[in-house]
Amino acid sequence: MYEGFDIWTFLVGLPLGLVIWAIVWFFVRKKGMKERIFDERYANLHRHARSISWKVMTGAILIAWIIVMIVEGAKLAFFILTALWVIHMLSWAIGAAIVNKHH
After folding, report:
1. Which of 26, 48, 58, 72 is 20 to 30 A from 81 in CA distance terms?
2. How far apart are CA 69 and CA 41, in angstroms?
3. Is the pTM of this model over 0.70?
4. Ramachandran class of 66: left when φ > 0, alpha when ψ lies in -120 to 50, beta otherwise
5. pLDDT band for position 24 (50/70/90)?
6. Cα–Cα distance between 60 and 54 in angstroms, integer?
7. Is 4 left (phi over 0), alpha (psi -120 to 50) or beta?
8. How far apart are CA 77 and CA 59, in angstroms?
């Protein structure tokens, strides 16, 4: 389909990138635990950042969904965005149920 695209290079690079990420994450986490930077303030900041990110992503998916419907109609991209929207909203509902159960 694409000239010069080697699927095997991609398939090797993807797991290799994940392994490198895991190694870096391990050492950063280990150093952070020694320096006690993962305290309650850190948790609250990241919880708030994830909340803002989730709201922005909700808007971005809706805008992309509208653009895809106008430009392409009901084709593959529309159904992929619909599935992404459903997963996005279900994850919120499940997360809200879990948090409400614990509090």
Report:
1. 48
2. 42
3. no
4. alpha
5. very high
6. 10
7. left
8. 17
